[in-house]
Design a protein that fits this description.
about 800 residues, alpha/beta, 7-stranded mixed β-sheet, 5-stranded parallel β-sheet, about 30% helix
Length: about 800
């Protein structure tokens, strides 16, 4: 192919015919136009007369120009003009294709797959051995590469997905520098960001062979972990460079009172022209903030733009109740004084009579030395705990004297208690205060450091019981239980067998007391726990995030050590998601609190190319169409010069001929739509929304084909084969039923399409939305969030109860 800048020709030798145009111009100038015939009776007087000199008339210059342009267009058209020609030089030798495959490349992953497919296709045509690696995976086989035929890797493109962490550059650089690989050329599909070890890996690859880096030009946005400032929830969006103003929208997602995941709040933010970060504040009531599970940047498809939340954003509602608290006059001896000090900074504390406390629906109910409750109060508290509440009890003189739980286990106590409270014999000796024993690994307090000066002087005693060992959370140094707990329905009852003030112990005076309340999820800290608080514990992933930001079930993955979780660095060993240990939940997100995104800068010897290559565009049909138009104008001009253009029918015939010729070149896409519309109008047709994903569209068609078959077999309806429709152009009223599969990559319809869909729904149309995520459990998947984004603008009619005389009540199979 020969090119002239952005224009190339498949058969450039045909352009030599353009040199003959001046000769054709001269010939056409020498040929006179057809004579003008005028009927004149007196012409008979001139018969036989001859003029000694005759001068032929010449063709008008503008008519000659039309003919020259038409011929030039024909010549250029058959020469095969191409816009943005790709003059490819065949490659030689082994080829390594390296993909960063990180969360930052998820936003334009389709473009990366298309470019990868073109690279492998060219390698297959050139017969080059090829190897394909994902740099976000850890290297295998000590960095040795597997070079195979390119078509082997082509079959795997569709299965490739980005990971939810950054590339492991340093690990690859170390492995490949020591591996014995032959010389090869590298094509590196970079995510555009600077990650640790990138320069080292580039140096290793450059020492082996040429390196070509393909960079995307899309805007990358990510979310830092949300924080709480002055009671507001603050989210910060970052980007790698300040390249102009940009707006974004932050959505807070969580369950509504019915348990359905939806957008709880939304707000718009804006980057200044040079800003690299922008914050959005949400002023939410604690009840609403406690339901936030996901924070997302709307419309950005990557794990970096999704945050999962944990207990650090929760603000518990804690109800406090103590015996005789109205008579207390000295704060320091009040049973609730130290509880207030520990809880007020991190929780909403309420104090009222028991009935009012339960009506307030607290997260935790705290009894400080409560003895006997009447039957109605006991039943009400038991129902509240069984519904999922936590009852935290502290002992004291009133509980010790109440003698509840002596003969049989009381529902609001974890164990049976001994009479009298204190023990003066046996294993427990009160000759001197007792210290706390190190917490067992199974205890929620495991890992907390016990101060040497924390001691217990008195306590209520637990009766020996076969289940006692399973219910002990903390013990004294001589093995006496200090904190016990049991499950009750969906809730839990926890008993500190000593006081909440300093009467029997100095535990409430220490920082350990606050930490134990945090471990029981009674209060929460907005700061992330440190390594000392998390290490030694095994944290089990409940949900993990993929590179696109979709949450998956993580129970099949193994637990990780708390030290890895405390480091806050995601990777193959610690995927982003929600991790739990007992009642505690910790979120691990892609972006760290102080992390910044930096654009990668490459060394001078590295060849840089854009990720999205400008595709070549054939122009042959446009030149031939122009030639036909010019020849048609030539016909009109010739007729006009000859005086034969009077009848209007002639003009209409020429114009019609030109229209038919041009429509033959350009095609008539509307004819196919008209035929489909006519077919749907005369038959019963089930329709499905085309998504652009061939596999999903095939599944939709197969499902509706089976439904049409069953309708034909079981009912009087005789539908024909289902059709796929484009919501932007299809006439929806022709289809009684539309199946709409939703995926995380589904596009939100335009305003015009939304209006047409609302009209369709308002006039009796039926659309079945399918998020296809029932196997994932719950409604907080990426597909369901995409459906919520689409449905926010739809006028979906509310459901109505079917009346008893409706035909559906008499329908059955």
């Amino acid at each position: 192919m020969t090119g002239l800048g952005a224009l190339g020709f498949l058969s450039p030798w045909l352009l030599l015919a353009l040199a003959a145009l001046p000769v054709l111009w001269w010939l056409l100038r020498a040929v006179p136009p057809a004579p003008l015939r005028v009927r004149f009776p007196a012409v008979t007087l001139l018969l036989g007369l001859r003029d000694a000199e005759t001068t032929p008339d010449r063709t008008p210059w503008w008519l000659l120009l039309l003919r020259m342009l038409a011929l030039a267009a024909v010549i250029i058209g058959f020469a095969g003009p191409v816009l943005n020609p790709q003059d490819r030089v065949p490659g030689k030798g082994p080829l390594l294709v390296a993909l960063d495959a990180s969360w930052a490349g998820a936003q334009d992953w389709n473009d990366r797959q298309e470019r990868l497919a073109s690279i492998l296709r060219e390698a297959r045509l050139d017969g080059r051995p090829t190897s394909l690696i994902l740099l976000s995976d850890l290297p295998r086989d000590q960095g040795r590469l597997d070079f195979s035929a390119a078509d082997v890797w082509e079959n795997r493109i569709e299965a490739l997905v980005p990971n939810a962490w950054e590339p492991q550059y340093q690990a690859w650089a170390t492995a490949m520098s020591s591996a014995e690989n032959d010389v090869f050329e590298t094509v590196w599909l970079s995510d555009g960001l600077d990650h640790p070890g990138r320069e080292a890996l580039n140096a290793v690859l450059s020492s082996i062979g040429d390196v070509t880096v393909l960079r995307g030009d899309g805007d990358i946005m990510a979310l830092r972990p949300a924080t709480v400032e002055d009671g507001d929830l603050v989210t910060t969006v970052i980007r790698p460079s300040g390249n102009g103003e940009a707006t974004f929208r932050i959505n807070l997602i969580g369950p509504d009172p019915a348990g359905i995941s939806r957008v709880l709040s939304s707000s718009e933010g804006k980057f200044g022209s040079r800003d690299r970060e922008a914050s959005v504040r949400f002023d939410l009531p604690s009840e609403l903030r406690n339901r936030v599970r996901i924070v997302e940047v709307e419309g950005v498809r990557s794990a970096g733009s999704i945050l999962v939340t944990d207990d650090s954003l929760q603000r518990r509602k804690v109800a406090l109740l103590a015996s005789g608290q109205q008579q207390e006059t000295v704060d320091l001896v009040s049973p609730l004084h130290f509880l207030r000090k520990a809880l007020v900074p991190t929780a909403d504390v309420i104090e009222a009579p028991l009935g009012d406390l339960l009506d307030a629906s607290p997260d935790v109910l705290v009894f400080a030395d409560i003895g006997i409750l009447n039957d109605i109060e006991t039943e009400a508290v038991v129902d509240w705990v069984e519904s999922g509440g936590m009852l935290l009890r502290f002992a004291g003189p009133h509980l010790a004297a109440s003698e509840i739980g002596l003969r049989e286990e009381h529902p609001l106590l974890p164990t049976r208690l001994r009479a009298g409270g204190r023990s003066v014999g046996g294993a427990m000796s009160w000759g001197s205060p007792k210290s706390l024993r190190e917490f067992d690994r199974d205890s929620p307090f495991f890992g907390l450091k016990i101060p040497d000066d924390v001691t217990v002087e008195s306590q209520v005693m637990a009766q020996p019981d076969p289940n006692l060992s399973d219910r002990v959370l903390a013990m004294l140094e001589d093995g006496t239980p200090l904190v016990t707990a049991k499950d009750l329905g969906l809730g839990r009852v926890v008993l500190f067998q000593t006081t909440a003030n300093a009467d029997w112990t100095n535990l409430p005076l220490s920082g350990l007391f606050v930490q134990m309340l945090e471990r029981l999820a009674v209060s929460t800290e907005t700061a992330r726990p440190d390594a000392a608080d998390l290490q030694g514990l095994v944290w089990v992933p409940g949900q993990v995030m993929d590179g696109f930001g979709a949450l998956r079930d993580g129970k099949a993955l193994g637990g990780i050590d708390g030290a890895v979780l405390a480091a806050g660095k995601v990777g193959p060993a610690a995927r982003p998601g929600i991790y739990s240990n007992k009642d505690r939940r910790i979120a691990l997100n892609v972006i760290e609190p102080d992390e910044e995104l930096i654009v990668a800068s490459w060394s001078a010897g590295t060849e840089l190319q854009p990720l999205v290559r400008v595709e070549e565009t054939p122009l042959k049909h446009w030149f031939l169409a122009a030639a036909i138009v010019l020849l048609g104008l030539d016909v009109l001009g010739t007729l006009w010069v000859a005086g034969r253009l009077r009848p209007a029918g002639t003009v209409r015939a020429v114009v019609l001929a030109l229209a038919v010729a041009l429509s033959g070149l350009a095609g008539d896409p509307a004819s196919a739509d008209d035929e489909a519309a006519l077919l749907a109008a005369n038959n019963t047709v089930l329709a499905y929304v085309l998504t652009g994903d061939a596999r999903m569209d095939d599944t939709s068609r197969a499902g509706l084909l089976g439904l049409s078959t069953e309708l034909f077999r079981r009912t009087s309806i005789e539908p024909i084969e289902p059709v796929g429709i484009d919501l932007e152009t299809a006439e929806l009223a022709l289809y009684p039923f539309i199946y709409w599969p939703i995926s995380e990559s589904s596009k939100v319809p335009s305003d015009a399409a939304i209006e047409r869909i609302n009209t369709y729904l308002g006039t009796g149309g039926m659309i079945m939305f399918d998020t296809r995520d029932a196997n994932l459990g719950g409604s907080s998947t990426a597909n369901s969030r995409k459906l919520q984004q689409i449905a926010r603008r739809l006028n979906v009619p509310p459901l109505e109860q079917v009346p008893p005389d409706h035909v559906l009540t008499r329908s059955f199979y």
